[in-house]
Amino acid sequence: MSFTASIAQNFDTAFAIQQGWGPWLVLLAASLGTYLCRAVGVLLSGQVSQDSEFFRWLSAVTYAMVAALTIRLVFLPIGLLATVPLYLRILVCVLALAVMLSNPNRRLVPALLTGTLLMVSIGVIRSYNLLKSIS
Fold it and tell me: 107 near 100, Cβ under 8 Å?
């Protein structure tokens, strides 16, 4: 292959990147970065004590972030969830929490299923009433 043909091929490749390959390359780079960090974590996991002060702090921060995001979803929702009244969002949370506390052994999946099914039911009922009032 001649030098000019190689240059032309490189320009064609660069043009193809601009024609739709860009998002795929960004996804590939992000995936490689993620899996590289995970691989380093796996390699270092045997050398780190899980009972250390750092991991207790990290666990506390993680639980605080999950709690804050849950509260934000309930009280300051965006998108479609914002159309559901506050009292219904709180009611769904209370019922899911009751399911979670009722069975101490297996509680996460039933609680998530309860919350999801209740929110979907509320949406279906509200959309049916809305469609019924339009007709």
Answer: yes
User: In this structure, how many other beta carbons lie within 10 angstroms of the beta carbon of residue 91?
Assistant: 13
**Amino acid in position 120:** V
DSSP 8-class letter at 60:
H
Question: Could you report the per-residue pLDDT of 42-56, keeping only the tens digit for each?
Answer: 888 778 777 889 889
Predicted local confidence at residue 91, as pLDDT: 92
Rg (CA), the chain: 25
φ/ψ of 85, rounded to 5, equals: -60, 150
pTM exceeds cut of 0.70:
no
Query: Residue 88: which residues within 8 A CB-CB, separation 6 or more?
Result: 122
